[in-house]
UniProtKB/TrEMBL annotation:
Residues 66-187 form the C-type lectin domain. Pfam families: Lectin_C. InterPro entries: C-type_lectin-like (IPR001304), C-type_lectin-like/link_sf (IPR016186), C-type_lectin/snaclec_domain (IPR050111), CTDL_fold (IPR016187). This is C-type lectin domain-containing protein. Residues 1-19 form the signal peptide. It comes from the Eukaryota. Keywords: Signal. SMART domains: CLECT (SM00034).
Length: 191
């Protein structure tokens, strides 16, 4: 739990630091509030995060903007290494990291928009043989992970991570042989 709290604190801190350095792109006077302010109720928060409130960031054509990232679902089956290379060939893209349930849900949205309502897709987590620790390949400083199917402390024999969704949209991370062909999800972080 401490690791998750520290990862979330680090994520929030880096996001806020990045926001300080964003260029001002507003056309309204400084003393006038922006047209879109953060919601005051939890129910409106989801819509606000997925709206057009990304302070001048935009996604490349074909990608979809989400909370802190642009996502691209790639339906072609590839090995993990091929999927990683494919995402890297798309500018600043990498295989998607899944730090929390929100990002898992965003990946599921991309899958369902492409007509896939359950199954496995490659994400950017990997580890070296003999190493029990997973890391993300998106070059961020965050090391948090969404829910693992067998728990974080399970013994994982394979070195690549995929996320599995059931027909209800519930997803969890699990290891898989890296040479298995799966669809994938690419991401570009917006910070």
């Amino acid at each position: 739990m401490k690791i998750l709290s520290l990862a979330w604190f680090g994520f929030t801190f880096l996001t806020l630091v990045h926001a300080v350095y964003l260029p001002v792109t507003h056309d309204y006077p400084v003393d006038t509030p922006p047209e879109s302010t953060p919601p005051s109720t939890e129910g409106d928060y989801w819509n606000w995060m997925h709206g057009d409130n990304h302070h001048g960031f935009s996604c490349p054509e074909g990608w979809t903007m989400h909370s802190i990232q642009c996502l691209l679902f790639v339906p072609q089956n590839m090995t993990w290494d091929e999927a990683k290379e494919n995402c890297g060939s798309k500018g600043q893209g990498s295989l998607a990291a899944v730090y929390n349930d929100l990002q898992a849900h965003e990946i599921y949205e991309e899958m369902t928009n492409a007509g896939l309502h359950d199954g496995q897709v490659w994400v950017g987590g990997s580890k070296k043989s003999g190493d029990p620790f997973w890391s993300w390949g998106d070059y961020s400083l965050f090391d948090g992970f969404a829910e693992f199917c067998r728990g974080e402390s399970a013994h994982y024999e394979n070195n690549c991570l995929q996320i599995t969704f059931d027909e209800h949209g519930s997803g969890c991370l699990d290891d898989l042989q890296c040479d298995v062909g799966l669809p994938s999800v690419c991401a570009i972080l917006l910070y």
